[in-house]
Backbone:
């Protein structure tokens, strides 16, 4: 379970696709360990975790930048932050709020929490991309970042599912799934409300990506390096 | 009564109030929360800036409430982080939670509240600088000494559990330097520096940054003295090597510049071609001052001598011999060329670049023939296209006694060059070259050659190939004579085949080109024995008279007994490469090449003249 190298029977194309993304290299877009088409490919748990950490780090960087850009362009002096409090749809997922709490949670529970957060973001990210595309005067930067985040989030979810499925077979799928209320419809709300909804979404995305990143780094050091990073 | 009391009290109160105001006391100004920072993502502190204190002691209180929590709490610790600060310990810190913080300033007069400040601890992490910075000079065996820098992470940061991931950066500089040299060290806690100045004292600092947060301040400075024996031997060696190579390069460039021309001629020996010698002493003897002066004075670019260059070999049959001989008095002067038109016969330009030295040049190198005719080298390219028109003049026995030089054209413009070539000609041992080629080769200016050859009006004289004969020279020519003026007329050029192709050929020199374009040829005495076919010929003998035409292809030249011996100029061509064998007794009349830039006589040196000069002299 710990540092043993596990051989993965890559029977599915999904696994191959995942493994092509989960690489040892620190760069997000480097060559896959398992060439496409390889049936049997051995990838160690360490490599899987390293790849997952790289992805989560990257996703949070993108979210942070996207939030900052949006704030600069659309939210100056509007006090959107006041309305952003308590606005995250994932607040129902009981994630640890400090290091002690996080360290007291067992691996599987923490992993399932991570999975729950990642899954909860599938739908909102999709709508975020759609809305940003339709936003008036939307900048190409924000849109490209949103598209990238959506893609990488999917990859990270697959990777985590694989890690969990292989390393912790007994982990049940987390039933807690947060439903996102969605954007206010363009007819019902004015521009300010829509911008505020955007602000909230980006604010929550930044936070949740930071959470996932921190948890995965904790788990990596705990599981792979035995708390000796 | 009450009224009286009230009326006295109120003014007194007002008086006190006004006294207070006069003393400058007022409620405190609005404080402002400046920043909140967390060292290790487990605790955090906030600092505020007080407003005007209103002249009275002011009390500050900080209150906050967390996101999703309606309870308002007060700051648990005002002391730990210094004045005007609030420190939240682990118990009071929640990550990924927005804190809404306000500061209240109160004094006797009143109070004022700051704007609320929203902060999430996760985004305000700024660690302390790294600690325990140590510097050491290490001297490993067989390696250069280096500076080894080591440090440790800040004390409170929890790296081993992965809660925070730090990246480091070091900077160093010699003590007196102005700029720091910064190096990124990643996640490692040590670093090696190899490029050091011996004898200097270095200052080193290090700082760190969490995975999502701010850079710390630079840590305390540490210094180390580099001992003098830490030499950069590699650098010295490389500097020495670099200087040496620069010197060598400079010498080579200088040598090439100086000897460039001779090197070029070594590598690409110039093709022999007719040469027009500088001063034609014949003119002097004859007192033909006009021609002499005109020969000397030919300076202009041959804008009006466009029809100068030889394009055709004029075949003059016996009927015209008298006409030719009458016009053969003129010697080709070195400097002046004028277009000679054998108008009654055909259009012909004058291939007025005749040079005995040029002639023999290439002919001694049979191997050049194919290359000359086939390979489209830069120099030889135009020639190859025109090699169809390689002409061979008769052997040394060709008499140039008559003053009827013949001009012949070498070939059509390269663009309209017919593909047909005389194989026999090509198979001849001698190589045919466009005289202009040769001239240019000698001059070492292939570009000009190309230019001249591209000029459709320039038909350089082909070098003559001397064929051994028993006393007659035969020149093979094609039946068609190219029109000098017909640029598009792909007439096959006049070609001369050696009389006897089996044997090594003698060369004749084009002695001169007469006024009307006739060539006067001189036998060339080569160093080989084969050249003396008909005995030693006086160098001044010329074969200028065409006795007959054989097969419509071959010109037979004989000496013209009636022609005075021309005393051609004795100047030798210096430029032809050593392979060129010149008869010492031979006189090079002149050689020319098309020199667009300099059109003038050359009395010495290469002796190559612009064909326009030559042409003009004939008019």
Residues:
């Amino acid at each position: 379970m710990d540092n043993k190298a596990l051989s993965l029977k890559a029977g599915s194309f999904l696994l191959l696709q995942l493994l092509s993304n989960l690489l040892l290299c620190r760069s997000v877009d480097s060559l896959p360990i398992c060439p496409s088409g390889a049936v049997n490919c051995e990838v160690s748990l360490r490599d899987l975790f390293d790849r997952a950490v790289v992805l989560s780090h990257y996703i949070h960087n993108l979210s942070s930048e996207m939030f900052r850009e949006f704030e600069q362009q659309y939210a100056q002096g509007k006090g959107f932050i006041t309305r952003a409090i308590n606005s995250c749809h994932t607040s129902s997922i009981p994630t640890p709020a400090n290091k002690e709490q996080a360290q007291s949670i067992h691996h599987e529970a923490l992993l399932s929490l991570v999975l729950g957060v990642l899954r909860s973001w599938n739908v909102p990210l999709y709508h975020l991309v759609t809305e940003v595309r339709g936003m008036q005067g939307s900048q190409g930067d924000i849109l490209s970042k949103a598209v990238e985040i959506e893609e990488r989030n999917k990859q990270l979810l697959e990777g985590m599912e694989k890690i969990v499925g292989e390393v912790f077979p007994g982990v049940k799928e987390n039933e807690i799934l947060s439903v996102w209320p969605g954007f206010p419809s363009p007819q019902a709300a004015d521009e300010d409300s829509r911008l505020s909804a955007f602000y909230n979404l980006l604010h929550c995305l930044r936070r949740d990506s930071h959470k996932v990143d921190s948890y995965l780094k904790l788990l990596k050091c705990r599981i792979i390096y035995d708390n000796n990073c | 009564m009450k009224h009286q009391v009230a009326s006295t009290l109120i003014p007194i109160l007002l008086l006190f109030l006004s006294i207070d105001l006069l003393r400058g006391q007022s409620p405190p100004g609005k404080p402002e929360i400046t920043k909140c920072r967390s060292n290790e993502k487990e605790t955090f502190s906030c600092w505020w800036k007080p407003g005007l204190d209103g002249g009275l002691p002011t009390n500050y209180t900080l209150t906050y409430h967390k996101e999703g929590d309606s309870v308002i709490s007060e700051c648990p610790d005002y002391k730990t982080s210094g004045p005007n600060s609030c420190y939240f310990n682990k118990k009071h810190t929640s990550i990924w939670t927005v804190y809404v913080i306000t500061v209240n300033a109160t004094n006797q007069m009143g109070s004022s509240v700051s704007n609320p400040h929203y902060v999430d601890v996760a985004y305000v992490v700024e660690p302390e600088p790294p600690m325990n910075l140590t510097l050491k000079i290490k001297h490993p065996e067989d390696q250069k000494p280096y500076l080894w820098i080591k440090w440790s992470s800040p004390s409170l940061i929890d790296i081993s559990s992965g809660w925070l991931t730090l990246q480091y950066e070091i900077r160093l500089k010699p003590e007196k330097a102005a700029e720091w040299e910064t190096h990124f060290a990643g996640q490692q806690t040590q670093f090696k520096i190899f490029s050091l100045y011996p004898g200097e004292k270095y200052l080193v600092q290090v700082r760190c940054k969490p995975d999502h947060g701010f850079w710390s301040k630079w840590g305390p400075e540490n210094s180390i003295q580099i001992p003098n024996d830490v030499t950069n031997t590699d650098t010295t060696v490389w500097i020495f090597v670099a200087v040496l190579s620069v010197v060598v390069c400079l010498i080579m460039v200088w040598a090439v510049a100086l000897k460039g021309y001779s090197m070029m001629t070594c590598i690409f020996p110039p093709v022999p071609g007719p040469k027009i010698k500088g001063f034609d002493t014949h003119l002097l003897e004859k007192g033909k001052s006009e021609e002499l002066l005109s020969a000397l004075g030919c300076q202009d670019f041959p804008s009006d001598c466009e029809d100068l260059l030889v394009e055709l070999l004029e075949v003059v049959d016996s009927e015209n011999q008298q006409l030719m001989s009458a016009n053969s008095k003129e010697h080709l002067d070195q400097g002046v060329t004028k277009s000679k038109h054998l108008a009654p016969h055909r259009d012909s330009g004058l291939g007025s670049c005749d040079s005995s030295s040029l002639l023999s040049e290439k002919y001694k190198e049979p191997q050049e023939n194919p290359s000359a005719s086939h390979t489209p080298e830069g120099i030889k390219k135009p020639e190859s296209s025109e090699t169809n028109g390689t002409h061979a003049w008769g052997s040394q026995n060709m008499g140039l006694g008559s003053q009827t030089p013949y001009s012949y054209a070498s070939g059509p413009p390269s663009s309209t060059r017919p593909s047909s070539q005389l194989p026999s000609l090509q198979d001849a041992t001698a190589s045919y070259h466009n005289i202009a080629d040769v001239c240019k080769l000698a001059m070492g200016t292939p570009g000009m050659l190309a230019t001249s050859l591209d000029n459709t009006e320039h038909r350089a004289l082909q070098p003559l190939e001397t064929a051994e004969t028993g006393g007659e020279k035969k020149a093979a020519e094609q039946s068609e004579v190219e029109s000098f003026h017909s640029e598009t007329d792909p007439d096959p050029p006049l070609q001369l085949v050696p009389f006897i192709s089996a044997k090594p050929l003698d060369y004749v020199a084009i002695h001169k080109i007469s006024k009307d374009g006739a060539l006067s040829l001189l036998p060339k005495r080569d160093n080989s024995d084969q050249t003396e076919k008909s005995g030693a010929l006086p160098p001044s003998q010329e074969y200028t008279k065409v006795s007959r035409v054989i097969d419509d292809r071959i010109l037979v030249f004989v000496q013209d007994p009636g022609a005075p011996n021309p005393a051609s100029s004795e100047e030798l061509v210096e430029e032809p490469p050593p392979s060129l064998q010149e008869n010492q007794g031979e006189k090079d009349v002149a050689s020319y090449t098309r020199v667009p830039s300099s059109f003038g006589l050359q009395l010495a040196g290469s002796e190559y003249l612009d064909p326009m000069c030559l042409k003009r002299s004939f008019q």
